[in-house]
Amino acid sequence: MPNRKRLLSSDYTMKRRNRSMNIIEKFKLLISQNFLARQIVLAVSLLLILFIVVSVSLSLFTRHGQKYRVPNFAGMTIDEARKASSKLKLRLEVIDSVFVATKAKGIILEQYPKAGNFVKSGRRIFLTTNTFSPKMVPVPYVTGFSLRQAKNKIVGAGLVISKLTYKQDIATNNILGQRYKGKNITQNGTMGEIGSGVELIVGHNPADPDPIVPGLVGLTVDQARNRLWEAGFNVGSIDQDDNVNAENFKNSKVYSQSIEKNRPAMFGRSISFKITMDEKKVSNGVNAMNREAEAYQREQEALLQDSLNLSEQNIIPE
Fold first, then answer.
1. For 78, phi and psi rounded to 5 degrees?
2. What is the DSSP letter of 207?
3. What are the pLDDT digits (tens) for 235-245?
4. Cβ atoms of residues 217 and 262 within 8 Å
5. Burial per residue of 35-58, b for 16 or more beta-carbon CB atoms within 10 angstroms, e otherwise
6. What is the pTM assigned to this prediction?
């Protein structure tokens, strides 16, 4: 029985082979006897060969499918970046220039695509560089304005408040004068470097109570500085976590401040704070700030209640 199955299988295989050979022979005979068929086969063959040649050529010239890791150009000059990317034949294009006083002039600050991404040879890389000279802007003349108005004008011009110097006056937080790089500004027309600081001479009536320290935790750097200036405080040191750099500095947030929220402090007092990009750290800081503020509030309410109780009993505290 097994031998018979093998014979049947072999016979079936031979029949299929003969049938395939017959089809091939018939196709050859058709081509040899039919001119139109020969032309169609020839045209199809030529198209197939042409397709293969074009595909191979494109792969050779464009390196189809071959990708390269983008280098990190941050901190390099344009010439250094071009040398670093010469083998990849990347096209470097400067699309923006900003001025960062803490960075070397002319270096690359940002790039897109970011370092580490994979791109094909010849891809354009867009760069932001640090200018060699800062942009100049008019320094607003704010003498006679309120502190809040003066702050808005100065910040709106692209400048910052370098220092609030308080001087005894009948009106608190009235601007008595201003200085730029140590020189008094007495009129409009003074030009200053964008991002630089203006000193404000501010009035203070000794009869007015001390200002209350605002809560800074959870705010961005710019928001925290604005809050301090508006309240009549100077910005102290800004301590940065390791995850804060020039690119994300403005997006970083405060997670700790040197004087707790809702505490009174002298006009012109410097208040420092710490910043991070760690959202969990910021969240923990917000919770801690609120707990401290609530504890301080309870403490003040208890002191007030004790004072009222003593007054009612006509007891003079020692």
1. -60, -40
2. T
3. 999 999 999 98
4. no
5. eeeeeeeeeeeeeeeeeeeeeeee
6. 0.62
